[in-house]
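User: Some background: our group keeps a shared notebook of sequences we're curious about, and every so often someone picks one and asks for a predicted structure to add to the entry. Today it's my turn. The entry only has the sequence so far, pasted here. Could you supply the structure so I can complete it?
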Amino acid sequence: MSTGFFKNIDKANFEGAQSTNPMAFHHYNPDEVVLGKRMEDHLRFAAAYWHSFAWPGGDPFGGQTFDRPWFGDTMDLAKLKADVAFEMFEILGVPYFCFHDADVRPEGKDFAENTRNLEEISDYFAQKMEQTGTKLLWGTANMFSHRRYMSGVATNPDPDVFAFGAATVKTCMDATMKLGGENYVLWGGREGYETLLNTDMGRELDNMGRFLNMVVEYKHKIGFKGQILVEPKPQEPSKHQYDFDAATCFGFLQKYGLENEVKLNLEQGHAILAGHSFEHEIATAVALGVFGSIDMNRNDYQSGWDTDQFPNNVPEVALAYYHILQGGGFTSGGTNFDAKLRRQSLDPQDLIAAHIGGMDVCARGLKAAAAMIEDGGLKDALSERYAGWDTPEAKAMLSSGLDDIAATVAAKNVNPSPKSGRQEILENYVNRFV
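Assistant: Of course. Here's the predicted structure to add to the notebook entry:
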């Protein structure tokens, strides 16, 4: 039954590139086959509950601009919010959604009330999911907004806060499992420091490692089959967050024996804040065997903070999906739109149009990435550049020592000449497809 919020907005359908309808898909056709798989099954789109339905339209310098009928801290309003959310999921045809606990349930006076509220709304979600067929890509706990978490959770100097956060994660994992979630995410927005003057970094890292091991232990205890994911971000809200980027997270996972249990949920905006490109973070995670899922958004390159805008840059998105496809594609992960409207975009139509545009950009990027893979130009260029390492001599060198290598170099007495990396030619190649 319609809530009336999206009145006069029909289900978004694929109309093709020639259509001028702003509320239709021009490139995203869920049934189009790309590299032997339906586009919907490649992209595995999810809508983020928090930015679409919980965010009030504020920024660091201004407060609420959105006036939504479900804003408020009661269970009735939480259920109205869910009704509107699942109506949007159906309009867009997204197969998945994602949520934090604080997005979906009223804040209670204590842990027990929070738990009761989460259990009640997750039961309501289960009904909505059965009615609509929408699935849960991942759940998580918001452990950064409430003032109790101002110094983090796993890295908090107060063990009572550590305990409260750990208990909250337990309830959120239970809810995620009950709803058939395919992953569980942890984002350490406050797991870092503002100043080293009051920070025992060694203790905090050890406690954070133990906290994540507890999550993995509980996953196996309850038989949760989903993937545990952590999400890198270098800064903001903390001055320095321990989960800085993909490489830093992998080192952390190795140190605490988690590299075979935990993978990464990577976000484009967080990659930019770390001084990387999105494809760098994806390629790093793929190379290290810890790629899991993505949050698809973008940052404003003129701003030094996380603006969470919907994607609109096809070349960037194409290279991201190129590395995802080269790594075997998504398994349990997917493409979650961790993106929000601009605070002046007030209308329900804006929320639908933003997702349609983002999904179209991803579809164009996916098709460009697939075309590059089918053409094989980048793969051939890499094979040619590294061909020397496939020779018996090069392979033998990697099994020898410095003294043997030095003797061989002295015997050959040849000064090697550098070869062109052909970067511009390869950039021109990519531009043929985007």
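Suggested note for the entry: The chain has two domains: 33-375, 391-431. The radius of gyration is 24 Å.
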